[in-house]
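batch job 7 of whatever, protein = Ig-like domain-containing protein
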Amino acid sequence: MHLRMPEAMRTRVSLVRLVWAEEGDDVELPCDLTPPTPMDSVIMVLWFKDNIGIPLYSLDAREKGMVYAIHWAASDDLGNRTHFITGDGQRARLKVKTVKFNDQGIFRCRVDFSNSPTRNFLVNLTLVEQPTKPVIYDAQGHEVIGIPRFFEGYDFRLTCQVSGGRPKPTVTWWKDGELIDAVVDVPEISEITGSSSKFTVNHLFIPKVTRSLWGSKLECKAQSEPMKNPIIREVPLDIYLKPLAVKINLHDDLILAGRPIAAKCESWGSWPAATLAWSLGGVKFRDPVVATTQRRNSTLSKLALVLEREDDGKELSCTAINHNFPGGDLKESRLLRVAYPPIVDAQLAVGYNLESLREGDDLKLVCSVQSNPSPIEIIWFHNDTRLEHNVAEGILIATNTLTLRVLNLGHSGEYTCYGRNSIGDGRSLPLIIRMKFAPRCKAPYESRNIAVMLHDTVKLRCEVEAEPSDTVRFSWTFNETQGDVLPIQNSRPRNYELTSVLEYTPTTQGDYGTLGCWASNSVGRQKTPCLFHIVPAKYKFLNNCCCQHATLTVIVLCYASMIVNMRVSSPQY
């Protein structure tokens, strides 16, 4: 309650003096009459109640002094029960007999002095009153109705609030009959409603709730003296407990791929009882075949599954989940050992490239084996022929690697590796090795003798072997008997992949000699050309001779047969 006074008086008002009384008692309200200076004196005392402008009681000492001052009281019920006792200075008081409930309020004692400013003394007469029944609020300011729920390991906050009660009641917290918090907070502004407060509160704070609170009962007690019996509000607690343990049980440490197994998972310590979720390799089972049994605070789950070789090394996990306790999941994982026969793959070792493999290079192959248990034997095959370690032949075998030294065309072909363990065996797909090499003459085109007559045309066919074959280029050279190597003039070879055909016509004796067919690819130029030795054709005999008469001249016309390649030439004269 607020009392309005003129602005000039407000600076002279004392602090409010609180006086308690029980209904029916007599009470004295103090007022200090001590003058500010020894030479000053009181000339008038006026008592007002609340905001009523008419004095409840007055003392007028302006004419006769304090000893013979005139006392006056209002004629109402309260005035008839009041009397002012002057005493000495601070001992002055207004006595109210047989206090009633409506008597409580703000009493103002106004003291006027002869030479000093007026002083006002405020007295709050308050009757003892029983507080309301305690109301419990959670940390968010919501009233707790029913059983509040809290989380293990999290902070615990409850507020007990009572309204009214005079004098201010004590509000205390008790757990199972034991006092745990007696600190009382009396806010000026209600922490719950945000309005001016007549509330008394006690904030109970328990950091990191433990399992010991589970099933406990709290009590908030409110009591205003001299009340004999407190007002009690009971608060049963429901503490959500996260799972305390989870355990997976597998019958076999080594599991055969493709065979069904049963896994068990058990969890306990959760409230409410946990739900168990299975996962393999971090992925939850979509439709697991499980049988679940729940008890008060424990859960048992049985999972039936078939594991494959891809599951070897994965983790089988069981997670205990309390859906009422976010973040309280507990998981156990077991590393799976799934047994299966070898899965074999033949590969090039790091740093080797089939695209750049040439004669004379070294080559290293790796037999990659996935198996559990580890392989007890690895064997290499070349075109289905088992390879053995042979340093002299450049075949080096070590554990799972095969090294071939100084490659030649004989090393081309299919390479496979074979692995075996106690479960079974496996063989890789073939790794095909194609050697890159510069062109070389294909048999029987290494060297040939060709007899041809002057002015006769012969087709020379040159065939080579090469890898790669799609980039082969041909060139022809002529080597006279004197030993000079010259490009062939006016020649028009036709090239078809690995074949080059040259039409050659000797016109003079100097055109006889050796023609060289050269081929090249991305690897290089062939070292030795394909040779065609062009030699003059020799006549074996003349046939089909006939005579032509022309006056004095006789012309004999014959066809000659060559010794070499038996070609019929043009007529010779």
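notes: DSSP finds two helices and 47 strands in the chain.
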